[in-house]
Amino acid sequence: MHLPDFDFYAPESVAEACELMTRYQDEARVINGGTDILPRMKNQVMAPAILVSIKRLPGMKRIEYIPGKGIVIGAGVTLNEIALSEVIESKYHSICHAAAHMAANQIRNIGTLGGNIVASIPSADMPPILIALGATAKIAGPTGERVMPLEDVFTGPGKTVLAKNEILTEVFVPDGKMTGSAYHKFALRRAGALAVVGVAVAVEIEKGVIKDARVVLGAVAPVPLRAVKVDAFLKGKPATDEVFAEAGEIAYDECRPITDFRASAEYRRELVKVYTKRCLKKVVTDGHKAVVGG
Amino acid sequence: MSSNYITDSHGIRRYLVTINVNGIDYTRVIKANVLLANFLREELDLTGTKKGCEIGDCGSCTVLLNDKPVNSCLVLALECDGMSVTTVEGLATTSSLDIIQEKFLEFGAIQCGYCSAGMIMSAKALLMKNPKPTEEEVRKGISGNLCRCTGYINIIKAILSASGQEVPN
After folding, report:
1. Helix, strand, or coil here: A142?
2. Is the confidence at residue A160, as pLDDT, over 90?
3. ipTM of this complex > 0.90?
């Protein structure tokens, strides 16, 4: 199989990249790792005349903890670089866990964080845990940069707020008060499979009381879904199994799954209920090192 | 990554790349749409690397790119400019096979053989990082490679044996 012809640009500055995207508009597509766009081009879902690689833009490969602020992760960081990052592991095993359980080793060595976000696949594994931890996205365009909560980037399957000539350059995970976090995914195989359901939770627990909680559900809505009713329910409650079981019931009602060839909507709801409960139980004892499932 | 190109008489850009494959620098002028798998097979006649699904699901095109396993069907060759690639042809010397290849033969880990090149490259990547893997780690290490014949058991045994561990045959 061969790809159709295209011209290839690898700009070294954001300004140059934005200028190319402004000039060529719908003719051009951004390529980062390429694990999403190249199969689409092979399947003739799209045939851009121009690919603009953003790999050489400054800071794309950055993983850095800024003391007292948070972790910066460049959009060009590969999934394996996240999975194996000591900087990220030392703060949030949950983020490394989500990256390590995506796709297969060969894909994780090529595919990037930025691609996993801007492809806006409802079952993507990185967005739920990053949103749960309050991450923001930095988006560069011809007139400058804007920063927004990561959850606001997604507008529908395959759709984001990014304009044609804008580029996601980095994700920032702020130091917060959360005391624990976890991501738990169910897929039909343990490797190389999309999430049927992905549940991410982050909680702040003090003296057995839940002070704050952010539960984010993947693959059960057109975009990563903040379970705001679950969050509201949990705040101020004691961190007990009964409370977590009820939180699971609320998540069951709050998610909006569809039936497809991977699973029925009802099955996904059941998974959301059980996985929400399991994640919450685990983060109480294991903090940000919590591992739920395999 | 190559910025050097010429535009041919059809208006198509052709890019100058140098890629080190199995220890040898190859300089070629290629179109942007050439995938690494096709570069290896068509430009260099290194047909040991097999193409299966061509969308990154099966792993049969696995090669090492700067020592990391990747699906060569999902990598643009021009983005490999200045990088090093190891294919299955790079494992054996003229006089002997790699220990992983020896063990694949010994344990009958090859049936139709189509997945073998990719499987062996994933095994190589695993053992380079983790010389004494557990069975679970071997299973994880080859989880990006599909085999439709063997049921994987003999492949796993071969890799464990290649790592110097006792394996009941």
Report:
1. coil
2. yes
3. yes
